[in-house]
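Q: What structure does this chain adopt?
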Amino acid sequence: MFTIQKIKLFVTTECNMACGYCMIKNSHDYMDFETAKVALEKYIFWTPSVWREKFVYFFGWEPFLNFSLIKEIVNYIQKRKKDYSFEIRLVICSNFTLISKKTLDWILKNNIFLSISIGWIESVHNQHRIFKEKTTKNAFEITTNNIKNLQNLGYKREQIWVWLVIRNKNISDFFYYFKFIVEQIELNHINIEFIIEKEAWRQQDFIIFKKEYKFILKYLLNSIKTWNFIFLNNLNWTIIEKLNKNLWKFSSPVSYLTEIHPSGDVLFSWFFTHLSDEQRKNVIIENIKTWNNFKNFENIWNKKFIDEYFSDMQKLKDFNSWEFYPFLKSYISNFDDKIAEFILEKSKKYLNFKKYIDTIFHIYF
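A:
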């Protein structure tokens, strides 16, 4: 029997922005409390846990458009605390533009973690992060000011995970942008998010990326030496996999990729929303409201299914970078593997490297 460590509740399929490179298929669906409640009962409270923590992610397209439901769900989880032995970490994934002082106070009071997407430095961010409604508002300024305001209230920077959006057009500024996030916005937990866009990556883009990523890894190693830790999500998982391979015998993709959409459909990826209705029928694991058993989870996650899924995704109209995506992942994996080995070896001798690894495990487990 497997356990589920993480679920993603897509509380709405609507967004307040219309970013030029966004591949999400927008609609106007909002999750209701009953759907969310059944998801929590079935996948969080009911399944056994080998984890110190389980995670509930609030996704949207922009989740703060359904903030009333988020608050209702959080209240429900807090009321159920006495009924389970593990901790539940609450994470909201957002563009962080729909935030009031009252919302900031609520985030702080309820110990909410945040995953915030920032699309490069101000000029580039605002070029592509476009509000749906015509306005002169500065999207970058709104997001970063909200982050600063939250930090001024005493919010720990470790509780904000920033999605660093990478496009091949801006790859030569990759390291500069990384440093900007760490030093100017004062965040230290970063996910690299490659945008699969209309213009394919060129060979010279890979060469530039390789150089820029090496600078980032060197910068990260120096942060460990100075006890001012910086974390890269992909590197974190490489370290975890090397150090604790037995962990995965309790796990499967179901453990951390389970998504519940407003309709109650359970999927492994929001990319499935791009498929035709006929294709989509084949990738829906179940509908949360039917209370099916777990057999469909394991049956659908196999090599044939994955191959067909990526084949369908690569046919998406106007997006020509799919074929390069595995190469980017491979580039990162090769670098991460070497750095992870280095960090693990140093942790046997140096306390700061050991503390760094301990902190990584605390972040995820």
